Amino acid sequence: MYALKLDEAKQRSKRQARTTRPMRRRISLAAWIALLPMAVTVVFAYLGTMLWTARVSMSYSRSLPTNTFAGATQYVRLFNTERWIVSLENLAIYGICFIVACLVIGLLLAIFIDQRVGAEGALRTIFLYPYAMSFVATGLVWQWILNPELGVQAVLRHLGFEHARFDWIVSQRFAIYTLVIATVWQAGGLVMALLLAGLRGIDEEIWKAARLDGIPRWRVYVSIVVPMLKTSISTAFVLLFVMVVKLYDAVVAMTQGGPGTASEVPGKFIMDYLFNRANIGLASAASIVLLATVLAILAPVLYARSRMASKGERA
């Protein structure tokens, strides 16, 4: 009797397997068909344009692409161009200041809102709202605010501080920092939202244990909470780094790369040589160098994140 029932169960499982296998195939086929447009976009629109840009960067192309092979000539010419070196130095200064300021301000805002303050929803909206603006709008707003004749300096002098001076936007030395101020104002809310989501995922038992042990609240944040936010912080870092590399709109709206080349960045250098100076080869070489820099910095970060995620799954 038992053997008969076992045989019936096996037959039933075989029938179910025969019916579910075609269904799985159909679902798998539908999933691949749904992914096909994105796969085509990635292959042709992204990888294709990267390869085409790399090919043009090794040619003598000027106004139009040509097939004349130039090897590394454009790259040698690029790194012998002082304006390109200055743009890289400016991007390094801007990137360090921007990322550090955004992470610090975003973390402080997230900790502040995590205290269950009143009107929390309104505060989140206020802090996050600037991120909804375009970089062009942000640049224009801050250009007016920092304009020595119309903005902060003019207001201070109107209030009686006749010797007040805040003319960074027209200063060779400080122009790049005005871009930091404007873009941190815009992106700080995004970091706040990411880190606040991480803070809300912290187990309440940690806070209860800390209160029982009499550990100061700031010490809990420094020693326990912030290390637990490493995934959120790394996500914010990746997003901020991409914003650094893409920096162009705010520069054009605020300073046009000036005064002189004080706020020149690679994005503006590439666009100028691509459209204004009709040197596609040099602009393509600059694009490939920028792409290689991004991959060299982001690849270890993403690899470390994947390793941490796999370790967490094993644990």
What can you see in these coordinates?
By secondary structure, this protein is mainly alpha-helical. The protein has a single domain (73-314), classed as MetI-like fold. 76% of the residues lie in helices and 0% in strands. The chain is built from 13 helices and no strands. It has helices at residues 2-57, 73-79, 82-113, 120-128, 135-146, 152-158, 175-200, 204-213, 217-228, 230-245, 249-254, 266-276, 280-314. Helix 2 (73-79) packs across helix 13 (280-314) and helix 3 packs parallel to helix 7. It is globular and about 75 Å long. Mean pLDDT is 83; it is low at 2-6. The chain crosses the membrane at residues 29-54, 91-113, 125-145, 174-199, 220-245, 280-304. It is found in: Cell membrane. Belongs to the binding-protein-dependent transport system permease family.
CATH superfamily: MetI-like
CATH architecture: Orthogonal Bundle
Poorly predicted runs are 2-6
Count of β-strands: 0
- The level 1 CATH classification is Mainly Alpha
Q: Radius of gyration over alpha carbons?
A: 27 Å
Structural class: mainly alpha
Q: State the share of residues found in helices, binned by percent.
A: over 70%
N- to C-terminal distance:
45 Å
Characterize the main sheet: none
Tally the helices: 13
Envelope shape: globular
Taken together, the total number of domains comes to 1
Q: Kindly identify the CATH topology.
A: MetI-like fold
The H-and-E topology, N to C, reads as HHHHHHHHHHHHH
* Average pLDDT metric: 83
What fraction of the residues are assigned to beta strands by DSSP?
under 5%
